[in-house]
Amino acid sequence: MKFVDNNISLEEVKEGLNEQYSSLYTIENMVGTMNEKARHIRFDMRSTDEYEAILNKGKFLLAGRIFDVDEFLPSPKLLICSRCNYPGHMKKNCNSQIDICRRCGEDRNNGVNHQECIVCCTHCGQDHEMTSFRCAYVMGFRDELLRKLKSDSRQLPPNVQLFLPLKYRDQGLKTLRSSLKKSMPDKRVQQHQVFNRNDQNMWPLLNSNSNSSQTFHQIQSCSVANEIKVLQSEFEKIKSGNMTEILKLKQDHAKQVQATTQHIQLFNLQNKIQTEAITDVYTTVCEVMPPIIQTMQLFHRILEKQNANVHVNEHERQDNNRILAETLITINTLSDRLQLANDHHQKLQTLMTKHSELLIQGLSYLDQQLNE
Q1: In this structure, are strands 59-62 and 65-68 parallel, antiparallel, or unpaired?
Q2: Which segments of the chain does DSSP mark as H helices, in order?
Q3: Alpha-carbon distance 231 to 213, whole Å?
Q4: 179, 201, 232, 361: which has the fewest C-beta neighbours closer than 10 Å?
Q5: For residue 221, what pLDDT is reported?
Q6: What backbone phi and psi angles, to 5 degrees, belong to 25?
Q7: In this structure, are residues 81 and 57 in contact, taking their beta carbons and an 8 Å threshold?
Q8: Would you state the pLDDT for residue 149?
Q9: Would you say 88 and 141 are in contact if contact means Cβ atoms under 8 Å apart?
């Protein structure tokens, strides 16, 4: 995929391909094609059909834009022997008696550390390895091989494409294909030429028969009527089953509403009993506390008069003062508690009233649901 914007991530491209194709194998950015704005992306497919389909389209829609899609063919590589480091054959076909170091050209098994030997190509005498593509000998062998294949493309296997470097291209052709593929006969064309559409012996005409046509229509109409009856019967069964299910659901709903109503009534009764009990407690407290406070106040006044008597000695006067102070504190405390009890009683009555109203509303709503 060519010239994909850098703001489109590789993961987005992968998701877009997976939405249309199911055989995506690998996907990666092509090193050397990235610039400030765009780059090329290489992806491989497992399915040959999807591979050919996307190549035939030549375009791919992604993020509202259309990108060109072309087949990726890597540069042709040479087969270089790993024993003598000469191109054109493999190790098993090599005639060399020793393994030659590709760095210095000496025997690899002569006991010298060939990881630190002097790099000098024995092909051209330059400072590079013997298998490097910078070597003039290797490049010359490659050029000769490409020229030979271009002169006679039948030496390539069928259905094989070979990428051509820029200097070997003729008329803008980037790839080299085998000419054997074009010479293969097309069986479909031969088979198509055998039959003649106008030959009545080869393609006999069918005689029309009105009786058979009428019989066919009658059979077809009967089969349609029978099918309609079967469908109607199935529909009635489904309808009957649905009505039974609806009736059962209504009965269950009525039972649930009735049970909920009973629970709410019990809660309401419990609320009333609790309210009455609490009211009785507060009433008792409010009735008992004032006489106690009055008694304490009377006792306080008596002690004050006794303490004002001249005949009372100093020790007794001090005891009376202490008792007067404690009595005054007790009177104030009882008065405050009585006022607090009255306030709490009023608030609790308000809450109980609201609670009762909510329960009554719930009962009325359930009654409406039950009547409906």
Answers
A1: antiparallel
A2: 10-20, 48-57, 136-151, 180-183, 187-194, 210-307, 314-371
A3: 27
A4: 201
A5: 65
A6: -105, -60
A7: no
A8: 75
A9: yes
Q: Which amino acid type is present at position 370?
A: L
Cα 328 off chain centre by: 77
What would the two tokens of residue 221 be?
């109409």
How far apart are the C-alpha atoms of 237 and 231, rounded to whole Å? 10
Q: Is residue 208, in this structure, part of any structural domain at all? A: no
* Residue of 184, 145, 194 whose CA lies nearest to 165: 145
Within a domain: 100: yes
Six token digits for residue 137 = 């000998």
- Token code pair at residue 103: 């760095």
- The Cα-based distances of 306 to 309, 315, 321, 332 in angstroms read 5, 13, 10, 22
Q: Does residue 299 contact residue 351 with C-beta atoms inside 8 Å?
A: no
Number of structural domains found in the chain:
3
Among candidate residues 123, 157, 184, the one where a domain is terminated? 184
Tokens for 177, please give them: 């294909």
pLDDT at 188: 37
The DSSP annotation for 258-272 comes to HHHHHHHHHHHHHHH
Going from the first residue of the chain to its last (372 residues), give the mean pLDDT of each consecutive group of 10, the final group possibly shorter.
91 91 90 89 90 88 88 73 85 86 85 83 85 84 79 67 68 62 40 47 49 56 78 89 89 84 81 82 82 83 74 75 85 85 83 81 76 67
Residues 338 and 234 in one domain: yes
Distances (CA, A) of 212 to 204, 217, 349: 19, 9, 94
Name the pTM for this structure.
0.35
Residues 116, 122, 124: CA angle, nearest 5 degrees: 120
Give me the helix-helix angle, 210-307 and 314-371, nearest 10°: 160
Range of 117's domain? 91-184
Residue 74 lies in a domain: no
